[in-house]
């Protein structure tokens, strides 16, 4: 068996895949529709939307295969993302890269594979739409074109979600994306009986930055703030731009005490940023912190609103002190 080598742009590719925030999400009809279609059109028992993560391939849509993921080392799709065209193996038993692959030797005993790379907006190949069979088969040029067309449908679905849930200025989730990810994360915390804490940030006197230094500089401050959030919080925390100069972070598996330590670290990073940048103004913020209470916080909007109100109260107290 030959393990798939890493593509030259592996780091960028992984960043892009993670930015899509699609890994480990629930199955969705819009992707299952495409795999169902592929299965029917090609008359194969298995079809997948497979995403190639650092060490595994994870199936966003899975028709006919019993597992949710496999290691990347034994994946066919890891090979398929190396090229631009459809990658197909007529008979795996006759191919030196795959004849002794556990997916060939043991269940599901794959004999035929065809996978078309799925490209994200920047061209990174994040995974494949693939079809599999338990008997060898020929894959014609016409078949290739059809698989490419179906892959385009998957790419369009991925792009549509990104547009609808991503803030175009900062490239982090917008309110809609944030809420969708929060629901997912809170369900996980409830199931695992883990705490979760919400931070609601609002930049202080942000309007002044716009007024004194121009809108472009205001934009730059918003981007810097989002970058600082991304840097200080964990990859598993949910980060979003909720409105103009409002940001929110949901910390999963952290109670209020731990969260305050994270906030102290964040505050240091912002102070360092202000010192090093010397842009004629400082980025400052007010924040409201609320711990999730699964019996009280039934409604996500109200939970976010609670943190917003607390932030506003802190802002008011600070203003009164001045
Ligand atoms: N540059 C820029 N400004 C924006 C954007 N979206 C909203 N704003 C501005 O952000 C400002 C938000 O101001 P507020 O939060 O109301 O007030 P503030 O000046 O931050 O004052 P306090 O919140 O009371 O500390 C408004 O002037 C908006 O015009 C954006 O995408 N880019």
Automatic annotation (TrEMBL):
<dbReference type="InterPro" id="IPR043128">
    <property type="entry name" value="Rev_trsase/Diguanyl_cyclase"/>
</dbReference>
<dbReference type="Pfam" id="PF01590">
    <property type="entry name" value="GAF"/>
</dbReference>
<feature type="domain" description="GGDEF">
    <location>
        <begin position="194"/>
        <end position="322"/>
    </location>
</feature>
<dbReference type="Pfam" id="PF00990">
    <property type="entry name" value="GGDEF"/>
</dbReference>
<feature type="coiled-coil region">
    <location>
        <begin position="293"/>
        <end position="320"/>
    </location>
</feature>
<dbReference type="InterPro" id="IPR000160">
    <property type="entry name" value="GGDEF_dom"/>
</dbReference>
<dbReference type="InterPro" id="IPR003018">
    <property type="entry name" value="GAF"/>
</dbReference>
<dbReference type="InterPro" id="IPR029787">
    <property type="entry name" value="Nucleotide_cyclase"/>
</dbReference>
<keyword id="KW-0175">Coiled coil</keyword>
<protein>
    <submittedName>
        <fullName>Sensor domain-containing diguanylate cyclase</fullName>
    </submittedName>
</protein>
<dbReference type="InterPro" id="IPR029016">
    <property type="entry name" value="GAF-like_dom_sf"/>
</dbReference>
């Amino acid at each position: 068996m030959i393990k798939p080598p890493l593509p030259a742009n592996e780091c960028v590719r992984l960043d892009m895949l993670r930015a899509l925030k699609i890994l480990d999400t629930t199955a969705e009809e819009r992707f299952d529709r495409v795999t169902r279609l592929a299965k029917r059109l090609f008359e194969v028992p298995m079809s997948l939307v497979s995403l190639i993560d650092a060490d595994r391939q994870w199936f966003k849509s899975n028709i006919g295969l019993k597992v949710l993921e496999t290691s990347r080392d034994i994946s066919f799709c890891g090979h398929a993302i190396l090229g631009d065209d459809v990658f197909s193996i007529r008979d795996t038993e006759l191919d030196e890269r795959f004849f002794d692959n556990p997916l060939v030797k043991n269940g599901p005993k794959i004999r035929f594979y065809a996978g078309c790379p799925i490209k994200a907006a920047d061209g990174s190949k994040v995974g494949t739409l693939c079809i599999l069979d338990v008997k060898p088969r020929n894959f014609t040029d016409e078949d290739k074109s059809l698989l490419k067309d179906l892959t385009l449908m998957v790419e369009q679905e991925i792009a549509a979600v990104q547009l609808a849930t991503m803030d175009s200025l900062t490239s982090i989730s917008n309110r809609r994306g944030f809420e969708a990810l929060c629901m997912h994360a809170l369900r996980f915390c409830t199931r695992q009986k883990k705490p979760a804490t919400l931070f609601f940030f609002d930049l202080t006197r942000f309007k002044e930055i716009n007024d004194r230094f121009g809108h472009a500089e205001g934009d730059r401050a918003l981007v810097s703030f989002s970058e600082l959030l991304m840097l200080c919080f964990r990859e598993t925390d949910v980060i979003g731009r909720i409105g103009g100069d409002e940001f929110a972070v949901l910390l999963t598996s952290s109670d209020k005490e731990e969260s305050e330590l994270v906030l102290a670290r964040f505050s240091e990073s912002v102070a360092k940023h202000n010192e090093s940048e010397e842009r004629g103004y400082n980025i400052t913020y007010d924040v409201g912190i609320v711990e999730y209470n699964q019996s009280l916080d039934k409604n996500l909007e109200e939970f976010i609103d609670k943190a917003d109100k607390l932030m506003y109260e802190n802002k008011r107290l600070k203003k009164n002190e001045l």
